Amino acid sequence: MQRENQLRVLVEGAIFAGLAMALEYVPHDLGVSSVQLSYGLIPLGVYSLRRGPVPGMLAGLVWGLLDMWLRGSGSLLNPVQIILEYPVAFGVVGLIGITAPYVRQHLRAGNIKQAVAGAVSGFIIGDFLKYLCHYFAGVFFWGSYAPKGQSAWLYSLIINGGSFIANLIMGVIVFALLVRVTPQLFTRNLE
Predict the structure, then answer these.
(1) Which GO terms describe its molecular function (predicted)?
(2) 31: phi > 0 → left, psi -120 to 50 → alpha, else beta; which?
(3) What is the mean pLDDT of residues 16-21?
(4) Average pLDDT of 66-75?
(5) What range does the domain containing 174 cover?
(6) How far apart (Å, rounded) are the C-alpha atoms in residues 156 and 23?
(7) Where are the beta strands (DSSP E) in 17-113?
(8) Residue 31: count of CB within 10 angstroms of its CB
(9) Max mean pLDDT range (14-23, 31-40, 182-191)
């Protein structure tokens, strides 16, 4: 039975990672070329809140590798940048799941507001860490693209900060709705 459950968790993770990757092909620029929504954060966040941070990080790693192989060909500079911006940045998204026990506990007790707060807090953590990785990659590897006279630190903050905020707004709204409308998504069939 334990082995069957582990297989179920892995298959579910592969499905959610594939869904996250598929959503990356939906147009996601917000007018300004540097601000992009990453819709894949939503299914990966759902999976992480269902299964916890370790399975979430593994699914994020798969998503990052898929993104690197399928879309990253023009943005692969060197091994350190590749590792930081793909497996690490996408993998830390799975840390959304660190609030999973809190969310489940409050959903089972009927405390929807606390469950929403937990899910949103987890999303904020995962989103922040993803864009923190991209920020440092921007400083150290993409800083040469900064406009003349602008520091790489500020340039990366502008480029990655806009995407962080846009994704933060999207995630807060979506997870607040998901937890309220479909709480069983985070509690049912987890054994």
Answers:
(1) thiamine transmembrane transporter activity
(2) left
(3) 95
(4) 82
(5) 2-186
(6) 24
(7) 29-30, 32-36
(8) 5
(9) 14-23
Question: What is the reported pLDDT for 74?
Answer: 66
The answer to the question of residue 191 being in a domain is no
For tokens 């699914």, the residue is 59
Instruction: Please give the average per-residue pLDDT across 9-34, as a whole number.
Output: 86
In a domain, 180, yes or no: yes
Instruction: Tell whether 35 is covered by a domain.
Output: yes
Predicted pLDDT at 30 = 67
Angle 149-152-158 from CA coordinates, rounded to 5°? 95
User: Which domain CATH number covers 93?
Assistant: 1.10.1760.20
Q: Which residue has the tokens 């921007």?
A: 138
- 10, two tokens: 């892995």
Inside any domain, residue 56: yes
CB 45 within 8 A of CB 100: no
Q: Which residue's structure tokens are 């007018």?
A: 31
Average pLDDT over residues 11-23: 95
